[in-house]
Write a structure and sequence with these properties.
five-stranded antiparallel β-sheet; single chain
């Protein structure tokens, strides 16, 4: 009887683990509470073309930590921060979400200078007309594979610079069915536990 209870409990725990996948944020350090170097890689992010007026900040985020995309008004380079996200289910739909606020407005107009890419494929663009006033934005994406590179770029059209914070990527809508290999391993594990239990019970009855 105890063995049957154990099998049942393991089944419930594994099913709950599958269900929990949908609520997990696949971006690491998406709230920028840990520092990110300018023009380098650290704490899950890589930044490129960042000058001294840009980079990681501990204040004026939404709240606290954030990252400023600025390249000293140079139109030939786009200040960029990016991260390769792992653990996606190929073909599943995800919601990409983030907070963004314009800074240094005297350098730009209302051009769509903040742009987002996935594996160098354009996803979306936006602008904000008020400095340090955060907009919550995002888009739906279909996972091209189990991983993808997400890039956030500013100054793409004019010299408008932006803060970014609270980046997340979560499953949208219903959770995808676990891959067949996962289901098979789950089933074999439960069968194996049950089989061991029956074998031991049978051996006890013969003595």
């Amino acid at each position: 009887m105890k063995k049957k209870c154990l099998v049942f409990m393991l089944s419930i725990l594994l099913l709950l683990a599958f269900a929990g996948v949908g609520s997990a944020n696949l971006f690491l350090n998406g709230d920028f509470e840990s520092s990110v170097p300018s023009n380098g890689t650290g704490n899950s992010w890589t930044s490129i073309n960042i000058d001294s007026a840009g980079g990681w900040r501990t204040s004026l985020g939404n709240p606290d930590g954030n990252f400023i995309l600025n390249s000293n008004g140079t139109s030939s380079t786009d200040p960029t921060i990016e991260q390769t996200v792992y653990g996606m289910v190929s073909g599943a739909v995800y919601r990409l979400n983030f907070d963004v606020a314009r800074v240094y407005s005297n350098y730009g107009s209302n051009a769509l200078s903040f742009q987002v890419y996935m594996d160098d494929n354009w996803l979306m663009a936006l602008f904000s007309s008020t400095d340090n006033e955060y907009l919550n934005s995002g888009t739906l994406i279909t996972a091209p594979d189990t991983s993808a590179l997400f890039s956030f770029r500013a100054e793409t059209v004019d010299d408008s610079s932006y803060r970014i914070d609270n980046v997340s990527l979560k499953l949208y809508g219903d959770n995808p069915v676990p891959e067949p290999a996962t289901i098979l391993l789950f089933g074999l594990g439960i069968i194996g536990i049950a089989g061991v239990s029956r074998t031991k019970d049978s051996a006890k009855r013969h003595f």
